[in-house]
Description:
five-stranded parallel sheet; Rossmann fold; Methyltransferase, Cobalt-precorrin-4 Transmethylase, Domain 2
Amino acid sequence: MALSFTIIGMSDSPSPHFSEEILKVISTxxxxxxxxxxxxxxxxxxxxxxxxxxxxxxxxNVYKIYSDINDHIVIFASGDPLFxxxxxxxxxxMPEVDMKVYPYFNSLQMLSHAFTLPYHDMHIVSxxxxxxxxxxxxxxxxxxxxxxxxxxxxxxxxxxxxMLEYGFDFYSMYVGEHLGNPSExxxxxxxxxxxxxxxxxxxxxxxxxxxxxxxxxxxGIDESEFNLLNGRSRMITKMPxxxxxxxxxxxxxxxxxxxxxxxxxxISIEARLAFPHLNILSFEIRxxxxxxxxxxxxxxxxxxxxxxxxxxxTADIEERFCDAAFIGGHGGxxxxxxxxxxxxxxxxxxxxFNSVTKESEDAFNATAKELNMKLNEPVHIxxxxxNPIDILKAEKL
Length: 397
């Protein structure tokens, strides 16, 4: 018999109600699988002499056991198995294997029902074993309703603290613990300040909704608003030049962006706010850049910028690649920096540099030609009494 699966979604209730069709599937099967908690709940329903496979990490071992069984296996999973669940994982790993799914309500549906919140317009993010990136993106985009799947580290309290740290205090939080278990279920509607100070029982999930009058998203931050390096306003890229620079970088179609010599972090922060999908990696040789990036990122609600303090030329980036790079500072090593960027630049990617001297412009153009890059027409700009700037761009062929 070929390997196949029936995946049964269930609630957290200790006394689950299954349809006659599902009960028939269970009664005629020999092999079963699920989490230890699922096994405890459904064990009275399993046929005698049946075999059970615990779903534990590493999952590769579980897949190997399934393949060795090579028979029909009934799997129990929480909620809807195809909603960030084990069914989705199994479909990705074994796409050709026959599979039938009996879904139950997922936790965010149950939480929405409990608070009578329509959820057709909800933006869903999973933090279960995942980084903050997609959640940060949803906040930057000011999504009006965000459903969040949590884990034991990224708890509702941890979520609330991160939101408050980066100034997203205009949301309310709905939390549900042990959803679907009548004796254990607890529901809370909280401010972020209340949630940040509370302990929650696992498992839980949460929904965030914008309260009222959120701040408007920004495109173009005046340089006077940034925390500056030793208060030196001339050390920051001016706002009109910053926006022209971002336009030249063509970040809409980029995935990975490097900001080399970030100083105050203004280019990285502006890029993060305008293009939340970007993976941004920023470099600054001066230790003072650490505090500036952290303080300015929080000031302008731009979480998720990865940065490295130290010399770009010796930074550990061997496995990293970028689609666009901006060189904001070079310390007299423009050629060496361009060469290293080029070795990590994807095909069609670009390097942008703002030149204030004929010497640096010549160095940029000469290095680009050595690397067989396509040079674009420079963008020339003068602002008030400041020195004229040429925005230079070279593309990898």
